[in-house]
């Protein structure tokens, strides 16, 4: 057997995952990934005794299953690169190389990904990052960051330009780390781990918290109640509305459409303030917890939700109608920052950015969990993969989420039903993959326990990990003045990438 077939949030014994010789492992993965229904949700390594165990998780989006296989290799091995055959693996292999010194022969460029504190080669530092260069007297370089004008996280953008035209953009990350994956192993209390999860990316508190809660409950063979599943889905969709509204405001700012920027910025505030009414925090921290909720949803909160959105919807749709009808706005949005469908497939894009390129990646449809299992979720797709498509899909998805929540609120589950005895003891020697569609896209948490049921390894993948390359490709041959709006149309996470 070459692979184990599992579903999202299904706990399995780690020994049930086949272990292949690397050449068979890589050939099998390449065969799978050549099928357009399959994509890699995670590929990583961890130390197993004195060797490195590689685990690859390939999701089949039409069969709604995940294929898992593994291989055991030595540190500092030389292995044939999968990226040579399929570029979507290039960053996964770079991370494995950075962490363990494994050399992937035929990889386009094994540059550092994160500069993590426990990387294999500490002589590779931010100061000697190997930027791509083009030698020409006609070209010049423009550096932006790592310190930016706004209060955002550090990242460096280096442009090679011919006049105003961008020929190449290189995005260098890895400026700060919390060592968050290692902290999941060091911190033993569940509340500590839940707090870590909601701080993986500050704009995706609900998304990462739900991924962790699902993973932990799966390790414990615990099925959350209907009420818990209801609360988590509602919070996920509400977070999507909040961030999409804020992103549309920021996109308007970057094209100097001040009315759109002001109105949408104002509209975002009551949406995030609703989380504060629900759980006392505008970012939804403390709302999602494994096995329980400290803030059960009720009819009063439902009434307040309708109050917020009865006021929100008319202004939201009116300003969006103006944005997508205004010639001066359309001239900045249409045909700017294009990522074609075939490019999105080749580099493995996910989430809003992928769907805007008419490339369907949506966990709510392909690998539904919890409340979504009983819903027929149709992904909203774009056509052109430009800033217009990435903006328009935010408006459409916000409206879709509002309609989805309205249907949810017709029947609020009874939160007073007792859950019964909760045993917070993960099963030993277990493996689980937890996939969640956050507002940005596909979140993946993988967990492994040892023979005592203690966490042995915890792996986090934010959707930004897939999409930073897409941003770099989107601005080729664009004017450098269009970079800000291209960047905001993706709105990727620095901390979600650097961890």
- Tell me which CATH architecture of the largest domain applies here: Orthogonal Bundle
| Residue runs with pLDDT of under 50 for 5 or more positions | none
β-strand percent reads: 15-25%
Structural class: alpha+beta
Based on CA inertia axes, which overall geometry fits? globular
Biggest sheet architecture: 5 strands, mixed
- Classified in CATH, the superfamily of the largest domain is Cytochrome-c3 Hydrogenase, chain B
Q: Please report the total strand number as a whole number.
A: 14
End-to-end span in angstroms?
Answer: 34 Å
The rounded Rg comes to 22 Å
Helix content: 25-40%
User: What is the CATH topology of the largest domain?
Assistant: Cytochrome-c3 Hydrogenase, chain B
Mean pLDDT: 94
What's the CATH class label of the largest domain?
Answer: Mainly Alpha
Order of helices and strands: EEEHEEEEHEEEEHHHHHHHHHHHEEEHHH
Number of domains: 2
Number of helices: 16
